[in-house]
C-alpha cells in the first residue's frame, strides 16, 4: 500500500531536520541488517495514531550562488508540491516572517496542496503568542512546536493526518504490477522504459486512470498487466539542480512508494557508484520488491566471467539487498531485454506471497531443532510460534518468551532458513518479535 507522503519545507535553520528526526524517531527499529544505508537522511517513515506515512526533509537541496537561499527554498517548495500529499511549512518563532518565508508561502499558496504551518522554536509560554504573526501568510492551520523540547509535534501530526487522501492505494487493481525505475541520472531509465514499451507483444494501453495517472504508463504483456509509475518524473527538464543527487532521490520517493517492484538501474559502463547505494537503500527501506538492472551491457567488454564478476560486485556493495536478482541488458540494442519482465513477475509474486501458519511453523521448528537459540546469561529464547501478518513485504511475527533474547545473528539465521524454504526472491522480509509466553 502506498503511504501518504509528507514534505517539510522551510528556509535554512528553522529546525526542519530537528523535527524530521523527531518524527521518524526510532521507527526503523525493525531489526534488520542495513550496513551501507545512508545515514544522512532525507527521507523516513513515521506513524501517528496507526496512520503510517513517509516524510521528506526537502532541506537537503541547496543551490549555490547569488540569492541561494531564495532559490533553494523555491526549488524545495516546488519539489514538495509535486511529491507530497501534505506539506509542513516550517517557520521560526524567534525570527518572525522573513522574505524567504513569504516567498515560500506564495508558491505553496498557489499550489492548493494542503499546508500546515509549523511555527518552531516555541520553547516557552512567552513565545506561544509569537505564532499569531504567521497568520498573515494566509494559511489557516498553524501549530506552535518546539524541536528542542519535542512539544507540539503530536498536535502538528494530528493536523497533517487530517489531510491524508483516502484512496492512495486504489489507483490500480490488484492484478496490475506497479513498476518504478530508479537510478541516478543517465543510467538509461527513460531508454529502458521506451525499450520495454517497444518490445514485441507489449500492448500499451490507454486506460489512462484518474487524476495524476497521465504520467503513468499502463501496458500488458503475455496476459500480465503492468504500469510504469511516474514516467514523467524521469523526464529531464534540464535544470542544474535536477541532476543533483538529493533532488533525484527525492523525486524518486513518491514513485517508490506507489510501486510494487522497483527496478534499480545501474550503468554497466560506469559501474557501481556510491549514489546507486543510496537510491537502492530507499527501495529496501520502503519494503518493495527489487531487481538490479545492469544497463548498457552492449558497451561492456566481456568474456564468460564478466557477468558473474559484476554480480559479485553488486553483492559486495549492496549487502543489505542480497535478495534482489540481477538482470543484465541493453536498452539500446534490446539485448537480453526479454529477461526482464519474467523476473519482475517472479519478484512481484514473492512480494505478495502468503505462507500458511502451520507450514511456516514447521520450517521454524526445524530451524530451531537444528540450531537452537544461544543462551544469554543462562536464559534461552523460546519461540512459541510464528505467523505471517502481512504481505508486500512479507512480514512475520515471532511470539517468544522474551523479545530481548532475539539476537540479530539468530534472526538472520531464521531469515535465511525461511528464504531457503519459501524462496521470497526479490523481496525484503520483515521479522518482528513479540512477547508471548
Ligand atoms: P534546518 O536547517 O531547518 O534543518 O534546521 P536544523 O534542524 O538544523 O536546526 C537549526 C538550528 O535550530 C539548530 O541549531 C537547532 O538546534 C535549532 N533548533 C531546532 N529546533 C529548535 C527549537 O525548538 N528551539 C530552539 N531554540 N532551537 C531549535
Ligand atoms: P536516464 O537519465 O536514466 O533516463 O537515462 P537516459 O535513458 O536518458 O539515457 C542516458 C544516455 O545513455 C543516453 O545517451 C542514452 O542513449 C544512453 N543509453 C541508454 N541505454 C543505453 C544502453 O543500453 N546502451 C548504450 N550504449 N547507451 C544507452
From TrEMBL:
<dbReference type="InterPro" id="IPR015946">
    <property type="entry name" value="KH_dom-like_a/b"/>
</dbReference>
<keyword id="KW-0547">Nucleotide-binding</keyword>
<dbReference type="GO" id="GO:0043022">
    <property type="term" value="F:ribosome binding"/>
</dbReference>
<dbReference type="InterPro" id="IPR006073">
    <property type="entry name" value="GTP-bd"/>
</dbReference>
<keyword id="KW-0690">Ribosome biogenesis</keyword>
<feature type="binding site">
    <location>
        <begin position="120"/>
        <end position="123"/>
    </location>
    <ligand>
        <name>GTP 1</name>
    </ligand>
</feature>
<feature type="binding site">
    <location>
        <begin position="295"/>
        <end position="298"/>
    </location>
    <ligand>
        <name>GTP 2</name>
    </ligand>
</feature>
<feature type="domain" description="EngA-type G">
    <location>
        <begin position="177"/>
        <end position="352"/>
    </location>
</feature>
<dbReference type="GO" id="GO:0042254">
    <property type="term" value="P:ribosome biogenesis"/>
</dbReference>
<keyword id="KW-0342">GTP-binding</keyword>
<feature type="binding site">
    <location>
        <begin position="183"/>
        <end position="190"/>
    </location>
    <ligand>
        <name>GTP 2</name>
    </ligand>
</feature>
<feature type="binding site">
    <location>
        <begin position="57"/>
        <end position="61"/>
    </location>
    <ligand>
        <name>GTP 1</name>
    </ligand>
</feature>
<dbReference type="InterPro" id="IPR032859">
    <property type="entry name" value="KH_dom-like"/>
</dbReference>
<feature type="binding site">
    <location>
        <begin position="230"/>
        <end position="234"/>
    </location>
    <ligand>
        <name>GTP 2</name>
    </ligand>
</feature>
<protein>
    <recommendedName>
        <fullName>GTPase Der</fullName>
    </recommendedName>
</protein>
<dbReference type="InterPro" id="IPR031166">
    <property type="entry name" value="G_ENGA"/>
</dbReference>
<dbReference type="GO" id="GO:0005525">
    <property type="term" value="F:GTP binding"/>
</dbReference>
<dbReference type="Pfam" id="PF14714">
    <property type="entry name" value="KH_dom-like"/>
</dbReference>
<comment type="subunit">
    <text>Associates with the 50S ribosomal subunit.</text>
</comment>
<dbReference type="InterPro" id="IPR016484">
    <property type="entry name" value="GTPase_Der"/>
</dbReference>
<feature type="binding site">
    <location>
        <begin position="10"/>
        <end position="17"/>
    </location>
    <ligand>
        <name>GTP 1</name>
    </ligand>
</feature>
<comment type="similarity">
    <text>Belongs to the TRAFAC class TrmE-Era-EngA-EngB-Septin-like GTPase superfamily. EngA (Der) GTPase family.</text>
</comment>
<dbReference type="InterPro" id="IPR027417">
    <property type="entry name" value="P-loop_NTPase"/>
</dbReference>
<dbReference type="Pfam" id="PF01926">
    <property type="entry name" value="MMR_HSR1"/>
</dbReference>
<keyword id="KW-0677">Repeat</keyword>
<feature type="domain" description="EngA-type G">
    <location>
        <begin position="4"/>
        <end position="168"/>
    </location>
</feature>
<dbReference type="InterPro" id="IPR005225">
    <property type="entry name" value="Small_GTP-bd"/>
</dbReference>
<comment type="function">
    <text>GTPase that plays an essential role in the late steps of ribosome biogenesis.</text>
</comment>
Amino acid at each position: 500500500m502506498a503511504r501518504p507522503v509528507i514534505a517539510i519545507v522551510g528556509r535554512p535553520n528553522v529546525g526542519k531536520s530537528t523535527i524530521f528526526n523527531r518524527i521518524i524517531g526510532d521507527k526503523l527499529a525493525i531489526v534488520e541488517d542495513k550496513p551501507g544505508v545512508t545515514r544522512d537522511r532525507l527521507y523516513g517513515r513515521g506513524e501517528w495514531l496507526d496512520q503510517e506515512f513517509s516524510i521528506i526533509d526537502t532541506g537537503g537541496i541547496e543551490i549555490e550562488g547569488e540569492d541561494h537561499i531564495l532559490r533553494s527554498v523555491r526549488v524545495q517548495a516546488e519539489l514538495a508540491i509535486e511529491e507530497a500529499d501534505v506539506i509542513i511549512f516550517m517557520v521560526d518563532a524567534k525570527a518572525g516572517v522573513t522574505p524567504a518565508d513569504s516567498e515560500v508561502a506564495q508558491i505553496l499558496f498557489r499550489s492548493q496542496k494542503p499546508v500546515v504551518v509549523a511555527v518552531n522554536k516555541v520553547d516557552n509560554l512567552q513565545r506561544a503568542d509569537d505564532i499569531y504573526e504567521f497568520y498573515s501568510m494566509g494559511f489557516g492551520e498553524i501549530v506552535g512546536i518546539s524541536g528542542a523540547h519535542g512539544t507540539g509535534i503530536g498536535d502538528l501530526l494530528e493536523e497533517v493526518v487530517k489531510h491524508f487522501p483516502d484512496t492512495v492505494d486504489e489507483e490500480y487493481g490488484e492484478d496490475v504490477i506497479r513498476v518504478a525505475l530508479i537510478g541516478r541520472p543517465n543510467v538509461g531509465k527513460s531508454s529502458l522504459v521506451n525499450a520495454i514499451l517497444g518490445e514485441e507483444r507489449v500492448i500499451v494501453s490507454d486506460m489512462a486512470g484518474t487524476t495524476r495517472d497521465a504520467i503513468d504508463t499502463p501496458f500488458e504483456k503475455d496476459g500480465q498487466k503492468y504500469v510504469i509509475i511516474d514516467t514523467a518524473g524521469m523526464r529531464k527538464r534540464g535544470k542544474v539542480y535536477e541532476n543533483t543527487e538529493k533532488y533525484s532521490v527525492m523525486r524518486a520517493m513518491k514513485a517508490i512508494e506507489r510501486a510494487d517492484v522497483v527496478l534499480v538501474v545501474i550503468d554497466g559502463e560506469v559501474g557501481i557508484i556510491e549514489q546507486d547505494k543510496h537510491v537502492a537503500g530507499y527501495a529496501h527501506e520502503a519494503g518493495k520488491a527489487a531487481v538490479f538492472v545492469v544497463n548498457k551491457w552492449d558497451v561492456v567488454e566481456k568474456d564468460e566471467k564478466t557477468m558473474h564478476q559484476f554480480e559479485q560486485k553488486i553483492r559486495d556493495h549492496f549487502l543489505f539487498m542480497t535478495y534482489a536478482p540481477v538482470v543484465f541488458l541493453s536498452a539500446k540494442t534490446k539485448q537480453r531485454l526479454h529477461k526482464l519482465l519474467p523476473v519482475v513477475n517472479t519478484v512481484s509474486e514473492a512480494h505478495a506471497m502468503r505462507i500458511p501458519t502451520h507450514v511456516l511453523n514447521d520450517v521454524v521448528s526445524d530451524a530451531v531443532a537444528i540450531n537452537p537459540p544461544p543462551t544469554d546469561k543462562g536464559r534461552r529464547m523460546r519461540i512459541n510460534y510464528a505467523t505471517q501478518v502481512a504481505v508486500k513485504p512479507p512480514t512475520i511475527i515471532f511470539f517468544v518468551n522474551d523479545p530481548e533474547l532475539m539476537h540479530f545473528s539468530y534472526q538472520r539465521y531464521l531469515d535465511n532458513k525461511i528464504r531457503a524454504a519459501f524462496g521470497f526472491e526479490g523481496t525484503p522480509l520483515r521479522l518482528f518479535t513479540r512477547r508471548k509466553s
